[in-house]
Amino acid sequence: MPSFQMNRRRWLRGAGVTLALPLLARDADAQDKPAGESNPIRDVKRMVCVANPFGFVAETFFPEHPGKLSDLPPLLQPMDQHREQMTVLSNLDHGVSGGHQAVHSFLSGIRNSQSSSFANRNVTVDQVAADRCVGQVRIPSIVAGVGHTDSELECQTSWTRTGVNIPPISRANDLFELLFATETQQQRDERRRVLRENASVLDVIFRQADALKNDLGASDRRKLDEYLQSVRNIEKNIANLDQWIDRPKPTVEMTSPPAGGSFAQRLPTFYDIIALALQTDSTRVATLSIPGNLPVADLGLQGNYHAFSHHGKTDRMLKPLFKIEHYQIEQFARFIAKLKSIETPDGRPLLDSTMVLCGSGMGNASSHSNKNLPILLAGGGFKHGNHIVAPEASSKRIPLCNLYTTMLQEFGCEDVDAFNTASGTMSELQA
């Protein structure tokens, strides 16, 4: 049985990531609604976002022509069997610059250093979706990364409404244990004690803040309010964690993966765990980031991923880079196939209710450009099978956040009219 050690630091981090029960037909049937009313289990939407720090070489990623996906480019060949369930989008970006320092804006459209003027800072699309899941699932959002990397070359994929980056769970066995490890009564009692201790600390913070407010000017009061909002989010996460302590975790056939292993082993393992988490309704939102320092020796190469990304259009660098990128797409295609093979209680493939985004905040790593980001969207009930080419002229550009607005609205966030820097939606995707 996998061990599950609890300490305050780990659990506070868990509260930030946030923590569900199997998605069984009997559960759906037990919650059947009268005719005309939606069912909370059958009608749920799910979201997965996959990111890497260097993007994909445009010439091998983007189809040659707009319109129906007929002949896929070399890099996307592993996705050929999924052509009718996917869309490739060109000429979408966030209008930001900064090379590696702007990659973290991939899911938000806003650089953290420029986020202070936005009401929700540089909150990412996954976290907006996750907010709607609090109380409904054990873990509203999984934030995972396939190993560690240095800060400059990592994706820093997920950000909160207060501009805080959520550190990813970087070991597959930790993620598995968080989701599926059986806990003893002693472990549950310890978790409950730690949560209540943390809740008591928050109560003290709120009392001190109330006493301080009257002595502050308008500017400082706004800063305090922002801080208190982040504290309220922690309070909400603690309440969510507490209500799930005594509910049994799903039983799955997969066993806890061993620690370590090669990148070639870890990437598919993370995908398998995320698929299980979605299947058991343990979460409805997940992000997975690929590290910039992934060990290319695991793929039979000498050198390093970052160096290859500065290819200068030379075959000597492009060939190994293609192998690295192709492996990522192969595993993404395998994940999509797995979601297609899993049946939900209403008899549909899990992919139909799961929107899966693959891309990067880097458009061209060789020139450090953050323009024309590589974007692939699969599943989720959208109108697929096409290559959508947005206007290239800067005066007519369509923000990538338009896509995120469309995704959020499909997810069930109907009140989101324009996510962050969006100017509208992507009507081309609406079935």
Written overview of the protein:
This protein is of the alpha/beta class. The protein folds into two domains: 19-182 and 251-429, Alkaline Phosphatase, subunit A (3-Layer(aba) Sandwich), CATH 3.40.720; 184-247. 35% of the residues lie in helices and 9% in strands. α6 runs antiparallel to α7 (218-244) and α8 runs parallel beside α10 (315-341). 42% of the residues are buried. Mean pLDDT is 87; it is low at 1-40.
Layout of secondary structure:
Blueprint: H1 8-17, H2 25-30, E1 46-52, H3 58-61, E2 67-68, E3 86-90, H4 125-131, E4 142-145, H5 172-180, H6 185-213, H7 218-244, H8 263-279, E5 285-289, H9 305-309, H10 315-341, E6 354-360, E7 375-379, E8 386-389, H11 400-411
Parallel strand pairs: 1-5, 1-6, 3-8, 4-5
Antiparallel strand pairs: 2-8, 3-7, 6-7
Helix pairs in contact: 5-8, 6-7, 8-10
Short account of what is shown:
The chain is an alpha/beta fold.
* Assigned CATH architecture of the largest domain: 3-Layer(aba) Sandwich
Count up the domains. Answer: 2
**Count of alpha/pi helices:** 11
- According to CATH, what is the topology of the largest domain? Alkaline Phosphatase, subunit A
CATH C-level label of the largest domain: Alpha Beta
At the fourth CATH level, what is the homologous superfamily of the largest domain? Alkaline Phosphatase, subunit A
Average of the residue pLDDT scores: 87
The description of the largest β-sheet is: 8 strands, mixed
Number of strands: 8
Q: Termini separation (Å)?
A: 46 Å
State the shape. globular
Please trace the helix and strand order, writing H or E for each element.
HHEHEEHEHHHHEHHEEEH
Instruction: Pick out the low-confidence regions.
Output: 1-40
Roughly what percent helix?
25-40%
Q: For the largest beta sheet, what order do the strands appear in spatially?
A: 2-8-3-7-6-1-5-4
Keywords: Signal
Pfam families: HXXSHH (PF07586)
Protein name: Secreted protein containing DUF1552
InterPro entries: DUF1552, TAT_signal
